[in-house]
Amino acid sequence: MNQLPNQKPDPFNSNQLPNRFEPQNLEENEFDNLNGNSPRNYHPATKKTLQKFFIILVVSGAIIGLFLSIGILKLMKHYGLTNVPAREQKAK
Fold it and tell me: Could you tell me the CA-to-CA distances from 80 to 6, 66, 74 in Å, in that order?
């Protein structure tokens, strides 16, 4: 298909652009990431920082969840949603 110099390529034409996920079109580090291989070395300071950040997130999530659950239970008790419903007697 002939295109004018200022015309954009047709996005629906699959033959125009190479597939970037073909093995011959990938760089070596992209190919390793697609196969699930992790980077070979981590800097110790980076690893320690990420571990601290993860622990902070887990602890803060647990604390927020605790406060939310206590608040929800208080609201349920206030509106009587935790009470046992009264028995209904059937009319004979």
Answer: 70, 21, 10
